[in-house]
Amino acid sequence: MSEVIRLLPDNIANQIAAGEVIQRPASVVKELIENAVDAGANNIELHIKDAGKTSIQIIDDGKGMSEMDARMSFERHATSKITSAADLFTLTTKGFRGEALASIAAIAHVEMDTIEQGEQIGTKIQIAGSKITSQEPSSRGKGTSISVKNLFFNVPARRNFLKSDNVETKHIIEEFNRIALTHPEVGFIFSHNGNVIHKLDGAGLRKRIVDLFGRNFNDKLVPIEEETDIVKVKGFIGKPEFSRKTRGEQYFFVNNRYFKDSYFNHAVVAGYDNLMPPKHYPSYFIYLEVPSNTLDVNVHPTKTEVKFEDDRSIYSIIRSAVKLALGKYNIAPILDFEHEAQFDLSIEQQNSPIRQPEIRVDSSFNPFKSSSSGSSSGFSGSGSSGSFGSSGGSNSFKSLKPNKEEWEDFYKITEEAQEELKTEEEEEISFEEPLKSSSNKIQLHRNLLLIQVKSGAMLVHINRANERVLYDELMEHFMLSPIAAQQLMFPYEYNLLSTQKLEWENNSSTLKRLGFDWDWKNNTLVLSSVPSMLEVEYVTQCLDGIIEKITHEELDKGELVHELILSLSAAATNHRSKALSEEEMNYLIDRLFQSEQHQYSPSGKRILNTISIEELNNYLS
């Protein structure tokens, strides 16, 4: 019998291992920057081309390596971080598996130029597909430089599964942000295709957050700090009023290592305790410090999942720390204008004792009451003579005869139900028919429209109705041709982060079709034209919404157009309404009811509500 099991060649085994560690260019960036941090670097440079697909280069001023160490670093399971299994439970460094460089070298062209601290001559090594093609002495300054080119050159199937440059760049930026937040004392330079995205000096945590996410973040942060025997908690959380509907800047770190944990994320949200609107998420930058023997980081190849020995206690401590921070800095609950006041109890109801609801039944009612017998019982409680199958006995079903008057009452109730159904149908029809001809429209407090309809009265939110009408018009127009633009008399300047500038440029064709035209002054967006329906005083609000959509959400082209037009229509209509003439009222209502979604605004808020005559009468009863 022939043997079928054989050992895999090293190059194939390395490619398989690389599939776990190196999933995309961002994985390479993560592993190489972490190695530079472990080498004690004070300054690290990251330069990428074509979202890392063409080239990734990391330059640091760390300790460097000797000639032998430089060669050994590309062997599988070769590491300087651990010497025994016990070291796995006292880890203080990032990389320890000894798989990163070997995995990268298996699927790319790699060049390393390094010099050991205190030496005059360094070493330059070139590797392609796990094979060393050259090794020679070099002359360079302090530290190490690693270049990774043509990622997945020998695994074309993996390269084909990479996303667009825009998406891959987002992943690289996210990995960079995680490491930069973990080590604010380290200086970083980050460039893409020759354009500098970040230039960060070593500083404190708060400044590092502001440098990465913008100056406006400085006013959004609340310090959080708690120290117990189980865990030390420190960092910053966002103020409730700055929460968003999308998950944005949410970062957990433990012992200077980034990790993901939905359980602890729930602890943070629970700490806000109804201070945020529903389905909103806060920003947070929370750093945990626990004894290394109570933490297992060797769970996943990418090391973003960790296990805690006492996660339940840590959950409670995080939630308490968030509550304490919000209370200490006098963070007040926000007003919820979406609150349904009709569910509130009045003062009399709040002070009155709670009573159990009672159900009253007329026990004497019997629709099968016999016209010849005064008995109200349908069958006997005992005895064979009272059974359903009995042919005798005065209480059997056969002896009961229906009362004609009772059955007439039964059909009378049915007719009443039909009348109610007919009324409901008329109410549905009344949504359109009376509105077109009725002039009984009153504008209340500038932003509400009260209209008389057959079933009672209809209340329409003017801003939301305008938003729905404008959104539908823009969507229909956008599919055929660019939206009309208005030239600005004076250029409008809007400051962006480097990452936001990159996202704006990635979506430039769509934004130009929306009516925007611009130039750049470093990272400042200088607008020369904006969509024609957008008033200048609401440009900032519109840009805020657009930047949030293109920066924090991964959307396909159709979803992106929807979100951008939603931001535009909301900004163009989200202000105090003017007094409307009767013609303007009629036009708005006519256009609103031409929409298939006239009940709700594009952002999902209710536009109109019908109040029946009975409900109106009850207000005065």
UniProtKB/TrEMBL annotation:
Residues 380-392 have a biased composition (Gly residues). Keywords: DNA damage, DNA repair, Endonuclease, Hydrolase, Nuclease. InterPro entries: DNA_mismatch_repair_CS (IPR014762), DNA_mismatch_repair_MutL (IPR020667), DNA_mismatch_S5_2-like (IPR013507), HATPase_C_sf (IPR036890), MutL/Mlh/PMS (IPR002099), MutL/Mlh/Pms-like (IPR038973), MutL_C (IPR014790), MutL_C_dimsub (IPR042120). GO terms for molecular function: ATP binding; ATP hydrolysis activity; ATP-dependent DNA damage sensor activity; endonuclease activity; mismatched DNA binding. Pfam families: DNA_mis_repair, HATPase_c_3, MutL_C. This protein is involved in the repair of mismatches in DNA. It is required for dam-dependent methyl-directed DNA mismatch repair. May act as a 'molecular matchmaker', a protein that promotes the formation of a stable complex between two or more DNA-binding proteins in an ATP-dependent manner without itself being part of a final effector complex. PANTHER family: DNA MISMATCH REPAIR PROTEIN MLH, PMS, MUTL (PTHR10073), DNA MISMATCH REPAIR PROTEIN MLH1 (PTHR10073:SF12). HAMAP family: DNA_mis_repair. This is DNA mismatch repair protein MutL. It comes from Brumimicrobium glaciale.
